[in-house]
Structures are given as C-alpha cells and as structure tokens.
Amino acid sequence: MKKFGYKQSNSDHTLFLKKERGRITCLIIYIDDMIITGNNEEEISDLKKKLFMEFEMEDLGNLKYFLGFDVLRSRRGIFMNQKKYILDFLAKTGMLKCKPAQTLIVANHGLQTVQDGELADKEQYQKLVGKLIHLSHTRPDIS
Fold it and tell me: Global pTM?
C-alpha cells in the first residue's frame, strides 16, 4: 500500500489512508476481506485496478456485511447493526429464548466443583469468548 502512496494508521495497522487535494481514500483489511471507501471516486477506481493486478480478488460491490455488522443504506444515511451476529451467537449457545437480566448470575449461587465432571469443549469455549470480546468492543452498551 505504501508504494501506492498510502500511509498506514498508527492506531489501527490494518487501515491505510491516502489524502490528496482535500479528498481521502481509506482501505481497511481484515484477513482476506477489505473495504475501500472515501470521497475520491477516481482514486478508489485506480486503487481497485492496482489491487486486481497484484492479487486474485473479487469486487463484491456495496458493503452489506463485514465483521458481524449488517450495513444498510437508505436516503437518510448508512445504518449498521449486529442483529444477525447476535442472533447467530444466541442460537449457537442455545440462548435464543433468554431474557435480559440485571446481573449475569444469581447472587449467592454457591458454585461448586463436581468431581469427575465432564470438561467443556475448549475450542468451542474459546470461540464463544472471542465472539463476546468482539461484541464488547463493538457494543460498549453491553460490555
């Protein structure tokens, strides 16, 4: 990206910016997905051509879903939500019918260790915790 005149952000190393004549073009990359946006249509088109020459890739058009966010457009603007991400998470954990609660666990529950109890699936647990961490970063109201 540097050879195309883009500068890497110090706060997010997956974000690259190019500013010219009061216009800006942004590229953000996450593993094998990327978003290109900005107010410089000519630069966006040029960047896409350069990237297509360097990499095997496909232009999926307007952004619809990225990292758990649904992106919706209307005359009033662009709206983002995580409804699908959260519903998929609740379905995977068997909690689709759960109700909101003020606390995460009943006070004075009296948790106990069960001898010879069945261990939880470590990988499944790590995936679920990762999804919760993602939600806590993107939804501070529920963190």
Answer: 0.64
* Residues making up the chain, counted from first to last: 143
Cβ atoms < 10 Å from Cβ of 82: 18
pLDDT in tens, 26-48: 999 988 889 999 999 999 999 99
C-beta separation of 94 from 88 below 8 A: no
Q: Which pair of structure tokens corresponds to residue 14? A: 């997956």
Amino acid identity, position 26 = C
Structural tokens at position 127: 């995936």
The model's pLDDT over 74-96, given as tens digits with 9 standing for 90+, comes to 999 999 999 999 899 899 888 89
48: left (phi over 0), alpha (psi -120 to 50) or beta: alpha
